[in-house]
Batch of 2 targets.
Target 1
Amino acid sequence: MGLWIAGAVLAVFAVTVLACSRYERNHVAVREYEVVSPAVGEAFDGYTMVVLADLHDNGAGKRNNRMMASIRRIHPDAVMVAGDMVMARKGVCRYGECVRLLKRLAFRYPVYYGLGNHEDRMGKDAAYGSSYREWYQEMMRAGVTVLDNLSLTIRERRDALTITGLNLDKTHYQKFKKAPMEPGLLERTLGVAGRDEYHILLAHSPAYFEEYAAWGADLTLSGHYHGGTIRLPILGGVMAPSYELFPKWSRGMFRLGEKTMIVSGGLGTHSVNFRLGNQSEVLVVRLRRRG
Ligand SMILES: [Fe+2]
C-alpha cells in the first residue's frame, strides 16, 4: 500500500513538473530592464530595445504570434538579437521560424543581429552545405542588419550609439568549461571601441563579460545559457547547454564598475528540451541618461 502511494505521488509530481516545463517553453514572458548611465547621449535617453536570443527555431504558430503581439505593444526603437535564433546540431539545421519571425519584425523595426555558436557552426561546418548562405540571403531580403564582427553607429543630433556584433569562433564554446580568451582578440577582431559614444555589444556568450567590459562595451547583451535550464532560489541557473553547472551569469543584469551586461534566458531549447522556474523570455531594455 505504502509503495503504491509513493508511486502515485511520484507520478503526480512528474506530470506537474512536465506540465510546468511545457507552459514555460510555450509562453513567453516579457522582462524589463532599465540601464542608467551618464554615458548615454541625451538623444538616446529613453531608447528602447527588444532583445531576443536562443530561439533555436522553436515556437511555430501561436506562440510566436503572441510574442509578436507583445512586441508591438512595446513599440521598440530597435530589436537586438543576441544569437542562436537558428538550430544547427549534428549536421542538421533549421531556420524557418527564425526567418518568419525576423521578417515580421524587420518590416516594423530596425533589427540588428549578432551571431551565436549555432549560426557560426552553420556557416563554417561543411556538413551544413549552403544553409548559411541561404539563411543570410533571407536576412538580407528581410532587411535585417547582420553584424558579423561588424559595427554600426546611429547618430542623432550630437550623440552617437554604436552597436557591434561579436562572432566568437567555436574554441570559445567548449563543453563543460570556459576557454580562456587570447589577449587582444577583441581589438583585433572588432577594432578599438570609441570613447565618445554609448557602445552596445551583441555577444552571444556571457562568459567573457570582464573582457567585453575591458574592451569598452558599455552594455553587453548576451544569451547562450538558456537561463541555466532549471532555476533554483538563491542558487540561480543549474546547467548551461554546454553542460557547465551553475554558470556565473546565466540570466539577469550584472555590473562591473560602469559597465553592464544583460543576459537573456532565451526563447527556445535544444538537446535538453526542458525549462523549470525559467520561462522563455523577451527582454525590453531601456537606456536612461542620469548620473
Ligand atoms: Fe548558444
Note: The CA atoms of residues 64 and 145 lie 21 Å apart.
Target 2
Amino acid sequence: MKIIELSNVSKAFKGQLLFNDVNLTIEKGRIYGLVGPNGSGKSVLFKMICGFIKPDQGQIIIHSDYRRKGTDFPHQFGVIIDRPGYIGNISGFENLKRWASILNLVKDEQIKDTMRLVGLNPDTPQKVRNYSLGMKQKLAFAQAIMEDQEVLILDESFNALDADSVINTRKLLLSYKQEGKTILLTSHNREDIDILCDDVIQITNQRLERLVNVGD
Ligand SMILES: Nc1ncnc2c1ncn2[C@@H]1O[C@H](COP(=O)(O)OP(=O)(O)OP(=O)(O)O)[C@@H](O)[C@H]1O
Ligand SMILES: [Mg+2]
C-alpha cells in the first residue's frame, strides 16, 4: 500500500535548487533511509512530506488513512526534524504531557512507559534545559513514538546516542517494522542505514536515486 507519493516535486530556496522534478513512492511496512551530504535537502524533504513546507512544483500525496479528515495534516506521523521545541524549565515528562494534550490520545502511564522504553526516567524532576544532548534526543524520540504513530519520520534520531541506546533504538525500530509501521530516517552513520533500511534513497544532483541496500 502506498502511504506517501511524491510526484514531479521541485523545490528551491533563493535560487538554490534542492530538488528537480523528483518522484518517490513510500510503501507501508518498510524502512527507508535517506542519505546525502550536509545541505543536500534531507531535512527539507522530510519537512515537505510532513506538510511543514510546500514544494514549488509537483505534489505530495499522503494516503487518506494517514491524514485527518478534511486536512493535509498527517496525524499518524511521528516526527523528529531538527531540534524540537522544548520548554526548558519543566521536566521531560511535563514536556511530553503538553505535547500529548494536543491530541489527547495517551494517558500519563503510557507517556511514562514510553520514556522508560527509550531509556529516560519519567520520575526525575530534572528540567529539560539541564538534559544532556543524548537525553534530549531520547525525549524527541519519545515524543515521536508515544502516540503509537503508524509512520515515523526520523531525521538524525541516532545523533548523540550512546552505543547501548543506538542498539536499543535500532531494535525498537525493527520491532515497529514487524508491526507494519513505516519508517523514514536519515543518519550519517552508514551502519544504521545498512542494518535498518530496506530501501536507501540518495540525493544526487537534486534527484532521488534509489540504491539497493546490500549491507556491508
Ligand atoms: N527555510 C529555509 N530557507 C532557506 N533555505 C533553507 C531553508 N531550509 C533549508 N534551507 C537550505 O536548504 C539546504 C538543504 O538543507 P537541509 O537542512 O535539508 O539539508 P540536510 O540534507 O538535512 O543537511 P544535514 O545533513 O546537515 O542535516 C541548505 O542549504 C539550507 O540552508
Ligand atoms: Mg538535516
Note: The mean pLDDT is 93.
